[in-house]
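Data card: per-record layout.
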Amino acid sequence: MKKLIVLVLKIQYLTPFQRKAYASAGLIGSLILLPDLYLAGAHTLLEFLHIFYESLCFMLEELIGHSLHLDKYHSQLILFYSQIAIVAGLGYKTWKTAPGLYRRTKAYLHASYQQLLKDGKQMWAEMPGRKRLKVLAGCAAGMFGIYFWVTS
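The structure for this 152-residue chain is written out next.
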């Protein structure tokens, strides 16, 4: 229990950049080491979404059929073409807004990349020489490890 408290205290004193870096590294590491966990979760989520979609379509089909006194075939036709119209409208809206969204996303990515470079340079400048050597040695060991893992 004491180790957990010490870990929580250490996390509280991290800078936002360090927290983000550790969280990103943890997520990427868990994705590499445990891909089945993410894939199974995504598959289950998509199954539930599909069941919800089919249930909603069935309810709408029954509602259309009973309210307009239509048979199942005509209710399905109305529902199908309504869905096509909705998808076409969303596609048109996406087509019109995509250039602006692309420009904003590109500007945001460029600004965040520049901020990341600035923070990295500042962190590197503030590091003592021994810690810089440790970082470089760790990077070299990681590269050699990956090289030998790939080539073996």
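Known properties of this structure: The two ends are 42 Å apart (CA to CA). The chain is about 95% helix and 0% strand.

See the next section for split statistics.
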